[in-house]
Amino acid sequence: MKQDKIKSLEGGNYLSFSTRRKSGEFVATPVWFAPDGDSYYLFSAGNAGKVKRLRNFSEARIAACTASGRLTGDWLETKAWLLEKPADNARALKALRRKYGWQMAIGDCFASLTGRMGRRQYIRVERPGE
Asked: Which of 36, 83, 90, 99 has the fewest beta carbons closer than 10 A?
């Protein structure tokens, strides 16, 4: 059953990534994501709320969703971590470029031109187990 949920999740372009506030409440955001090995990789602005929340708690939830964040799948409990090492960031970026191709290339180009590329924070999300 969980394998079906994961397969459905990986077939889409967006993932609802939910991180926990200090109050215990979860806050969801639709994001691009790319599977690689036993993880999903995603990125965010370095000063985004989800990044700040991950500094406090690694607990997270993920679900398939639309670009607007409307859930199309069930929540799956997981853990997520901020990547710090350049090699880990490169692995995340490679996975995202492999999945999103020209769309990621255009985003990277604009991010480089505006200076946002260097302020990106890459995140590794543990692929939910059986």
From this structure: 90
99-110 pLDDT per residue, tens: 998 888 888 888
Residue 9 has pLDDT above 80, yes or no: no
Distance (Å, whole) CA 100 – CA 89: 16
What's the Cα-to-Cα distance from 105 to each of 101, 119, 121, rounded to whole Å?
A: 6, 17, 17
Find all residues with CB under 8 Å of 17, minimum gap 6, and list them.
28, 29, 30, 31, 33, 42, 50, 60, 61, 62, 80, 123, 125
Please give the residue range of the domain that contains residue 29: 2-126
For residue 94, what is the domain's CATH number? Answer: 2.30.110.10
* Range 59-72 average pLDDT: 95
- Please tell me the total count of domains within the chain: 1
Pairing verdict, β 120-126 and 14-20? unpaired
